[in-house]
Amino acid sequence: MPQPEAGKSNFDYKLFNAIEAKAYDYALNKNTEHGKSAIEMMKNALATADFVNDQFAVRAYGRMIMTVGKVYDWCYDLISDDDKKATDCKHSGTCFTPVGRLSAE
To answer: Which end of the chain is more exposed for a tag (fewer CB within 10 A), N or C?
Structure first.
């Protein structure tokens, strides 16, 4: 996602709609190109999301968590073992989340 303007979020609901649509197309039609694209887009979004800490941030966090779950479920067989481990705190020691890294300890 692009760098946000000062004091603003770069969260874009349209982007998350596109990610979910691609993942859903893979789940229904086995469109591998869309499934892989959904995974890469989700990884990029997780790495670059920047939220403004305001009363509406919880909506963006929730949407991101829901989208990550859908991509993980619908595209599971396309996700690499390394990417699966990166989402599992027990194996990686840390988890990448919309709010940063969390320690498994």
So the answer is: C
